[in-house]
């Protein structure tokens, strides 16, 4: 009987010691080490790839933002503020209906097939809007020139980047709305176009938030 109690006590003590050691190693030392290494080697990425303007954090280069006008009375969807470069559509985003204590945006895709009528209607409507919004006097937009990312959402609905083709399509409208020379805005797009990662991964892209921050600086400095 005494041997049984002693063995049980030893097993419990061994288990407790293992729990304490693993808690300290995995719950304290490892997180602190990883955090320290991350902050030392790439602090920008470790802190969320924040983008600042005039000393104020305005967003992350990893998460897309919308640039809309304030909602008017009776409106359900805000109209885009056309003085800014516009991101991809975000039809896959949803709203939180479970925990209504917080106002949350749910990331996700539309999960519609290519022949789905709702998706086709979305794309058709978006394409007509892109043509209308970006046509300026003397320079109408050819519907055939509208790139796919201008009318379709990404898998998350939060894609921060657009294609150089879509950015270029918006240049004349942005220049006109901000009273800038077209060449100035074209140069801005060129400066903020990132090539493929390692020269072969992915596609060339333009981060919309970074581009709009630079646009604001250009407008304020002009």
Provide an overview of this structure.
By secondary structure, this protein is mostly helical. Helices cover 45% and strands 9% of the residues. It contains 6 helices and 7 strands. The chain has helices spanning 2-41, 43-46, 117-134, 164-177, 182-191, 208-221, and strands at 50-53, 56-60, 94-95, 105-106, 161-162, 193-194, 205-207. The protein has a 3-stranded antiparallel sheet. It has a two-stranded antiparallel sheet with strand order 1-2. Helix 4 (164-177) packs antiparallel against helix 5 (182-191). It is elongated and about 95 Å long.
Descriptive keywords:
three-stranded antiparallel β-sheet; two-stranded antiparallel sheet; 222 residues; mainly alpha
Element-level helix/strand string? HHEEEEHEHHEEH
* Main β-sheet description: 3 strands, antiparallel
Model regions low in confidence, pLDDT < 50 over at least 5 residues: none
Q: What share of the residues lie within helices?
A: 40-55%
Strand content: 5-15%
Q: What is the number of E strands?
A: 7
Strands across the major sheet, in which order?
Answer: 5-7-6
Q: What is the 3D shape? A: elongated
Distance between the termini: 90 Å
Class derived from helix and strand content: mainly alpha
Total helical segments: 6
Rg (C-alpha, Å): 25 Å
Mean pLDDT: 88
Offer a concise description of the structure.
With 222 residues, the chain is mainly alpha-helical. The protein has helices at 2-41, 43-46, 117-134, 164-177, 182-191, 208-221; strands spanning 50-53, 56-60, 94-95, 105-106, 161-162, 193-194, 205-207.
């Amino acid at each position: 009987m005494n041997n049984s109690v002693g063995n049980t006590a030893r097993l419990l003590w061994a288990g407790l010691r293992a729990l304490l050691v693993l808690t300290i190693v995995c719950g304290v030392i490892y997180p602190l080490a990883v955090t320290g290494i991350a902050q030392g080697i790439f602090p920008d990425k470790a802190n969320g790839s924040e983008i600042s303007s005039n000393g104020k954090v305005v967003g992350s280069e990893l998460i897309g933002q919308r640039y809309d006008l304030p909602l008017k009375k009776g409106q359900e969807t805000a109209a885009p503020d056309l003085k800014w470069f516009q991101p991809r559509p975000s039809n896959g985003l949803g709203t939180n209906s479970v925990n209504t204590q917080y106002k949350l945006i749910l990331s996700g895709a539309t999960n519609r097939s290519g022949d789905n009528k709702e998706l086709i209607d979305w794309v058709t409507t978006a394409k007509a809007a892109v043509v209308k919004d970006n046509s300026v006097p003397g320079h109408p937009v050819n519907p055939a020139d509208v790139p796919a990312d201008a009318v379709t959402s990404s898998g998350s609905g939060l894609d921060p980047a657009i294609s150089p083709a879509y950015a270029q399509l918006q240049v004349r409208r942005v220049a006109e709305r901000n009273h800038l020379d077209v060449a100035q805005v074209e140069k801005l797009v060129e400066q903020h176009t990132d090539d493929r990662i390692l020269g072969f991964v992915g596609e060339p892209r333009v981060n919309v938030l970074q581009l709009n921050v630079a646009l604001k600086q250009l407008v304020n400095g002009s």
